[in-house]
Design a protein that fits this description.
mainly alpha; 2 helices; elongated
């Protein structure tokens, strides 16, 4: 049967690794689960910020067009 996940290796400072394991243990989750959730939340936040920047840019363009029309 084929794996449905990929193994990823990365490095972090020892103190952060200790915190990671401690939080996972406290939450009753695996380190992998904790990291997946953290990355998923990061991606959601990143997308939200991207959309917010797009809205601001469009709002500025709309204001500039309105200013030109009113001249």
């Amino acid at each position: 049967m084929a794996r449905t996940t990929k193994i990823v290796t990365f490095s972090i400072p020892p103190a952060m690794e200790e915190q990671l394991r401690q939080v996972a243990e406290e939450d009753g989750r695996t380190v992998s689960e904790l990291l997946r959730e953290g990355f998923r939340l990061y991606l959601e936040d990143r997308e939200w910020r991207r959309r917010e920047r797009t809205q601001v840019r469009h709002s500025r363009q709309d204001q500039q067009e309105e200013t030109r029309r009113n001249r």
